[in-house]
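for ur thesis appendix - 25S rRNA (uridine-N(3))-methyltransferase BMT5-like domain-containing protein. copy paste whatever u need, i formatted it the way the template wanted (i think)
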Amino acid sequence: MRKKQKLSKISSSVVTTMDMKEHFELNRDREVWLKHYSSNHQILLVGEGDFSFSCSLATRFGSASNICASSLDSYADDVVRKYKKASSNLKTLKRLGASLLHGVDATKLKQHTDLNCRRYDRVIFNFPHAGFHGKESDSSLIRKHRGLVFGFFQGASRMLRANGEIHVAHKNKAPFCHWNLEELANKCSLVLKQCVAFDKKDYPGYENKRGDGSRCDRTFILGDCSTFKFHVAKELYTEKLKWRQVKGGESKRECTKRVSRVSSEIHSGELGRISPRERTRFPYRYTKESPERHHLLCQTVQAN
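the 3d part is after this line
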């Protein structure tokens, strides 16, 4: 009887393994959507709490091979300790093939060794928050929140594939509307593509967590909130491609020719007369203030 029981256990585990393999094969070519997200998208999630949002996507897709989910908290010390369901969510994500990263600072994405060379179709940051350090209406706390979002935009804008988007779920009413997400995005060469009402019910199993303080595992009232979708302006994306080719090994003379093709509006000597608001349309590295371009211009002057 014992031998039969052992054999049945072994056979059931083999069947489970085979089922999982077949499951992955079936879902590999079948595109599945959950709201704005497709199983064919390469997705990066930043600032996850108990990983319930990424788990919701993975469960719907039937596979998480296209998902990279990250948290600021470390695994053993924070995530599992702070959130009751984190352990089971992480096990589900791992079983479905997700990439899991911990200790990831949302303002330093490009400095992370596992992220600096990767590109994504969707980069998601749900309800960014710099921590509970006073009333939400305090100007000092609003500055901290804005600094967090701005740092995130700076890194995420450089990690997008062609036609990629950055999604930020955020509250619409005061004082949260005073963060001015669109203004921060414009400073990073991003423009608002669409603003869609966010409904927690669209993502089965998702629980928005406070993430900070003694009540970190509790949810907070969402109220009126939206998913803000940003993308890189097309004209600026073209210039990004040019600069990547320059960094790939073009000669200084070829580089100078490329720079000269950029609109005179950006590189003319009258750039300083353009209003600060207008200047946010162009990334820092494409203007005369760019250290890279300044070095190239100096070399050109010396050559002449």
